[in-house]
Amino acid sequence: MTDLDRRFETVLPPKRPGRHGNRATPRAFVFASDPQYPWTPASDLNLEQSAADRDQESAQLINQQYANIADYRTHMGGTAIPVMINGDMTAYGHGWQRKVLYPILERHLQDNYYFGLGNHDYENNTTFNNGAARDSILDLIDHHRERVDTMDISAITDLQQTHYSGSLAYSMNFGRVRLIQLNNEPTYELGFQSGWAWPLEHRHRFDISGSLQWLEGQLQEAYDSGQIILLNLHKPNEWASQEERNRFRAMIAHYRVDAVFAGHLHREAGRFYRDTRAVGSIPLYLSGSASQSTYLVAELNDSADSLSVRLVRGNDWRSAEEIDQLQLYKP
Predict the structure, then answer these.
(1) Domain ranges in the chain?
(2) Nearest-CA neighbor of 94 among 75, 116, 120?
(3) Model-wide pTM > 0.85
(4) 19-67 per-position pLDDT tens digit
(5) Is beta strand 8-12 parallel, antiparallel or unpaired with respect to 150-157?
(6) Residue 82 contacts by C-beta under 8 Å, 6 or more apart in sequence?
(7) How many CA atoms are closer than 13 Å to the CA of 72, on its beta-carbon side?
(8) Are residues 209 and 190 in contact, defined by beta-carbon separation less than 8 angstroms?
(9) Would you identify the CATH topology of the domain 26-327?
């Protein structure tokens, strides 16, 4: 086999195993979702708005939200407080949208933030050449490959294409807490290609699978270790597979998941009671959106056996309302 024929396989991430093995248990977590640039309150109501006004207002709202999150982290001790953003990073994954969003996040959050993909990132925008979905997925991989403990993704590269497979789900250990990100929803699958035919351009092929098989291994490890388990995803309902939804519900009950955090429903921030078929009796919390100026903070007590979940409205963490005092599972 020549060098031109040889294929290279990598399993992502991390590049440097063990880099994050000694994280402490943080005092708090921040759960946000749906910055969805350039989305606005008018977008939520399907009202007319000029593109210039929409773009300006959306950027302002995102700046306000993440500046407030940064202020909260400063109050709680600094950037060791993790921030999780549960999907719909931009409205359609276009390059001009991503170029506005990510500098805002990096300016306010620095290194310690994480995100998942939502329907606006890689479900609604598989179109001609699939560039928006491709770049949204590559953003996820590139941002997290040196930050997380494990990600369900592999890549095989040859001269003609790179083939990615897996669910894109990932997990991190923060002392007593295992934080897991499942992206759009754990039964979602997607297959597509992007790029022109060889030899004009290197192609990308994606076979995104559901995450339940990978998730069960994560939950077993966390359960056996006596960890607090916090799951994250984008869509709390309208999943692709009802059968797999039932499997997920049974799985998280069996392994005593403590809470699920989600986004997607911009105007329904708080504890979600309307449709709990996916999670059963496990508490599910919605973080709202940048367009609605809402997000969640979750604070551990000193013994890490209770979690106070608080809803921030108007991007003002100082007036956050406690919506739940959650007793955590302890083996």
Answers:
(1) 26-327
(2) 120
(3) yes
(4) 445 799 999 999 999 999 999 999 999 999 999 999 999 999 999 999 9
(5) antiparallel
(6) 26, 29, 30, 112, 113, 114, 172, 174, 179
(7) 30
(8) no
(9) Purple Acid Phosphatase; chain A, domain 2 (3.60.21)
